[in-house]
Each structure stands twice: as structure tokens, then as C-alpha cells.
Amino acid sequence: MPTNDQQTTGKTIGLAIILNEFSEVLIDRRLASGTFGGYWEFPGGKIEPNETIETCIKREVKEELGIEIQVGKHLITLSHTYENLQITLIAHLCRYLDGEPQTLQCQEVRWSSLQNLAQFNFPDANYQIIEALAKKLL
After folding, report:
1. Which terminus of the chain faces fewer neighbouring Cβ atoms within 10 Å, N or C?
2. What is the pLDDT of residues 27-83, one digit of tens each?
3. Where are the chain's structural domains?
4. Tens of pLDDT along 84-131?
5. Distance between CA atoms of 112 and 32, rounded to whole angstroms?
6. What is the 3-state secondary structure (H, E, C) of the chain?
7. How far is CA 61 from CA 7, 21, 47, 49, in A?
């Protein structure tokens, strides 16, 4: 149990595992100034009150990358604790529909094959998502 001066805050985050017609995954690089600055991630963000996970994912992808997606099947839900941050990640497989990915709230955007994801530096919790995706696609 954390003491009062070690409070752990919790967040629920919806993530989009966006696949294109070549089975490549869209990832983005976080802004340098912030939590996990410079790390790669799957697009998404914090769920707002009274928002479904599907609506959250679609909204966050539009805000971060300026593209339209179709939110599909649930891939994985996991909880992970970083120092004073406890997060629940809910990842859905998504289909890329329209728009050119832009760096609206990130440093860089890239399509990557599943095999090449290992060369990118992700926050620890994301590796369970990559493993679940590999089991689903391979």
C-alpha cells in the first residue's frame, strides 16, 4: 500500500492497434517533453468520463494523428504499474480508413511490420501488447 506521499494515480487508456492493407502497424513517437518522452507507442489516450473505449480510441487517434479508423475487436487488456502511475491499457485492433498520418501530438509516425517492432523502444507495458498481436497475426 502506498503511503500518503507515495500516492499511485490510475489511468485507463484506450489504444489503437492500427493495421494497414500490408499488415503493418502504425506507431508514433512521443514528444520529448513529457512522460516517456521519445518512446514509441501505439496511438491512443485516456478515456474520458461517460465515454466508451471505442469512442475514446477513435477520438484520440483523430486528435493525435488526424486520421480516421474503424475500431474493431478487443485484443488485450492489461494493468501495469510504473513508479507512481498505475495504468490499465485496453487495446483494440483497428483498421486504417482515411487521411495521412500527421505528427499533431507526437514527434514521428511510422508504419512497421510486426517483425520490426522489436527495434523500437516502447514503455514496458507495451511489450505484452506486441506479444498478443504476434499471437493473433502469426
Report:
1. N
2. 999 999 988 999 999 999 999 999 999 999 999 999 999 999 999 999 999 999 988
3. 17-137
4. 889 999 999 999 999 999 999 999 999 999 999 989 999 999 999 999
5. 21
6. CCCHHHCCEEEEEEEEEEECCCCCEEEEECCCCCCCCCCEECCEEECCCCCCHHHHHHHHHHHHHCCEEEEEEEEEEEEEEECCEEEEEEEEEEEEEECCCCCCCCCEEEEECHHHHHHCCCCCCHHHHHHHHHHHHC
7. 30, 18, 12, 18
What is the CATH code for 17-137? 3.90.79.10
Q: Which three cell numbers stand for residue 124?
A: 514496458
Cell of 134: 504476434
Residue 58 C-alpha cell reads as 477513435
pTM score: 0.90
